[in-house]
Amino acid sequence: MEDSDLEQMLAFDPLLVYRYITDEGKLRHDLEILGLTDDFLTSIGSYSDEVHRKPLVCGFAFSSDMTRVALIEKKRPAWQKDKHNGIGGKTEEWDLSSYHAMSREFEEETGAIVSWNQWTHFLTLNSCGVEGVRTTIAFFFTCGDEILDTITSTTDEVVKIFEIVDVVTSTDYSAPMIPNIPWLIAMARSYTQETAQIMTLTEHGRKDRL
User: Fold this and answer.
1) Domains of the chain
2) Which of 58, 90, 111, 210 could form a disulfide with 152 if both were Cys (CB 3.0 to 4.6 A apart)?
């Protein structure tokens, strides 16, 4: 890893560097170059549980003017079958971070290459999941006409480009959506660098509300 890569990772999120501890000597050398002390290693160590949760990732690729978005028609799991969702999947052991997982999953499912640092993490959702199984999902977005222009369907789950106004207001059940898609897209579109912060929400199941 180049020093500039590590510096970019630290600028995005200090948690990202935790996965780099597999080569502690190299990491310590790079941190010294960046002027960081051993206290930094101690501080990020407290985040190890967060890192090793391996959240799911889900991303929205918008057109440059954010009027169109790419969604994927899911075939699995069963509860998502024939519904449209953002593009993503599981964080794997070899992913350096959820940003890298997002980049990898997007390329696998669309054929489009979007670097990890082109993704913006705007929401972490702690979901009740199916049958009460807790799941952490990191939501991202990216923008660019050139991204949408290179998207293809690389699996049996077909990727489609939608007009956002249709996604948010449509009653056309020929293209059903996962229920939270409209407000997730609205949240991503409202994210600006001036007010940027990663939101964390907890979704409660029915049992939690009793």
Assistant:
1) 3-50 (no CATH), 53-209 (3.90.79.10)
2) 111
